[in-house]
Write a structure and sequence with these properties.
Distance between the termini: 46 Å
CATH superfamily: Carbon-nitrogen hydrolase
Radius of gyration: 18 Å
Largest sheet: 7 strands, mixed
Strand content: 25-35%
Helix content: 25-40%
Shape: globular
Number of strands: 15
Length: 265
């Protein structure tokens, strides 16, 4: 069975989650009405991505998660959101998935922090992968800069993921790399990768959307434009299996040799 996902591009009202979440509610309602099983928002969408942010740091019982939980339950749709999660000694840049019943299903904290913008000074890095299931389709989660590190995408492939969701705040001036990396990670691992990007301007950056879903052959399934809007895509696990059967890349890997080659350097 395939699953329809929705990538929701909305402008973040800087450090005003109540305002942004109000607009997100309309997106969730429309995505549900159009048959999506999951609607996904970009990195720290409720506040705007802030690598050194001190405000709007919450836990899972806070306003951002609780509001999205209520909207998920009301519209009977799963929701992927992202926020600044309270943690010690520093907060974590965390994505979370809420089931259609309003309960938090899984969380994922960004493993690779973007040090050129000092994110490693404002946040603690995550250290584990996260997987969840919707109607028999298995999803994984990564965040923005994680796209540049193919290892975690390979590990998701090893555990049978059909699609990796990547909420991001990817700036306009690197948008060509955004598409290249999404398509490469999809092609490398013969599954779907869905990148949900930010749109609009914040004090940190200028974003021009371009949310993108790539298929198991690295082909573009769906693409958002530069403005606010919803982009829908069908995730078909049969196509993932077919691609792997036709070209069994995973079984051709030589892990033992790779480690020996590394040790010989």
């Amino acid at each position: 069975m395939s699953v329809t996902i929705c990538c929701a591009q909305i402008k973040s009202t800087w450090e005003d989650p109540a305002e942004t979440l109000g607009r997100a509610g309309f997106c969730i309602e429309e995505a549900s009405e159009k048959g999506a099983s999951l609607v996904c928002f970009s990195e720290q969408f409720a506040t705007g991505w802030g690598p050194l942010a001190k405000d709007n740091i919450e836990d899972l019982s806070g306003k951002i998660v609780s509001t999205l939980s209520s909207l998920a339950r009301k519209n009977s749709i799963a929701v992927l959101g992202s926020f600044r999660e309270r943690s010690s000694p520093l907060p974590k840049n965390t994505a979370f998935v809420i089931g259609k019943n309003g309960s938090v299903v899984v969380t994922y904290s960004k493993i690779h922090l973007f040090s050129p913008a000092c994110e490693d000074e404002g946040f603690s890095a995550g250290d584990r992968l996260s997987v969840f299931d919707i109607d028999g389709v298995k999803f994984g989660v990564a965040i923005c800069y994680d796209l540049r590190f193919p290892e975690i995408f390979y590990y998701y492939r090893r555990i049978g993921v059909d699609c990796v969701l990547v909420p991001a705040a990817w700036p306009c001036w690197r948008v060509e790399q955004w598409e290249l990396l999404i398509r490469a990670r999809a092609l490398d691992n013969q599954y779907y990768v869905a990148g949900i990007n930010s749109v609009g301007t914040t004090p940190v950056e200028y974003y021009c959307g371009g949310s993108l879903v790539a298929g198991p052959l690295g082909d573009v399934i769906a693409r958002g434009d530069e403005d606010e809007g919803l982009t829908f895509a069908e995730i078909d696990p049969v196509r993932v299996k077919t691609s792997a059967n036709e070209l069994p890349i995973l079984s051709h890997r030589r892990e033992d040799l790779y480690m020996r080659l590394l040790s010989d350097l």
